[in-house]
Amino acid sequence: MEKHFKFRERNTSLKTEILSGATTFLTMAYVIFVNPGILSAAGVPFAGAVTATALGAALMCVLMGVISNRPLALAAGMGINAALAFSVIGFQQANVPWQVGMSVIFIEGLIIFTLVLLVFREAVMNSIPLNLKRAIGVGIGLFITVIGLNDGGIIRPAPITLVSLGDFSQKYVWVTLIGFFSTAFLMAAKIKGDILWGIITAAAAALLLGVTAIPQSAFAAPDFGTFFAPFQTVNGHLALVQALAPGLLFAIFAIMLTDFFDTMGSVVAVGGQAGFVNQNGTVRDINKILLVDSAAAAVGGLLGSSSITTYVESAAGVAVGGRTGFSAVVTGLLFGLCAFFIPLIQMIGGGYRLPNALHYALFVNSGFTPPADVIPPGTGDYFMFPITAGALIIVGFLMMKTVRDIDWDNFDEALPAFLTVIGIPLTYNISYGIGFGFISYTAIKMAGRKFSQVHPLMYVVSFAFLLSFILAAK
Prior knowledge:
21 helices, mainly alpha, two-stranded antiparallel ribbon, single chain
């Protein structure tokens, strides 16, 4: 094990890697419950989606750890799953069968995998200017912070200011604050495993305050109904063949672009924190990382979990000290257990179900019209994730340090970096923020007639982003 994972060489230990993997898992565990909820709204069998989400993440985390030996964990990607459910498949199967939607994911994953084999994806990553790479990491740090603040109820939507202070009379907000401050105190005291202990403290507080409860049953049998969805027959035809219809080609392109750059941003951000990004911004072992990640997208479509991608929450494990692939292996093994013990994991990583009347009040008091699923009260659900929210806020803070390395005195570099930093959290999408940075960087260099300073691939990718924004606006 030492020979393969190189614990001593990377200044870590087996114990640290186990703590790192467990911490990453706890910050990602919500995906096991959120992803099936989103997919089931579009007709994907809920039980099957749970199994596919857990086992898909388990398989790809282990492969990433063993093949790349980097502390990068994978699971079904948030954002892509919503686009698949509500834009491709359509709510309650209004557009295409869910098996065809999974085939779209399978196809785009195969395309990205081919681009990795052709070394195109690595070439694009190496063509990104160093300041933009740094900005991506900072933007994702802010993104994680916003997610944590929102998941924990510290902030809430507002009609004019967009966001406002949350309702501190709610117990789930107390849980978030307890998790955050306990982690901060442990970090200040230099206690090993501070983030993990902070999550455990938040879980204990949630139990005491009644925000979560010990489950009545620990075991839940897996359901394999969504496996091999692209090769299932729907309406007399193979789902995979139906995904090649002209109307779905843009969906394949749009999701592929998101998948392509979400991972790129996550790897740069986590790699900078873990120390496997060189001074010139290149990521060591990047081809191995991209190979596994690209295969993961196709595997997600094959199993029926939506696209599986590298998670920026891996930074939580890195913050604990994870530096090798064994951290990802531990995360994968824990995800594998979830396929059989979901009720236990839900106690910590699952969402806190708000009473529907409170969900309704959140919208009304914020000046928004409540969605149809909360009218009348008693029919809808709204989830908060307070137990891990404090950890995400801390991780976002840790990822901010590279902001000092951006060349803010150079306008050509600084403005695109700024747009990337604010674009990622404010659009709630990593790829959109990267797109803002790419397009503005290329345009500014062209305006200054500094054509030679732009890598040829930057022109290609910037045009692709611009095209995707234009087509999405139609």
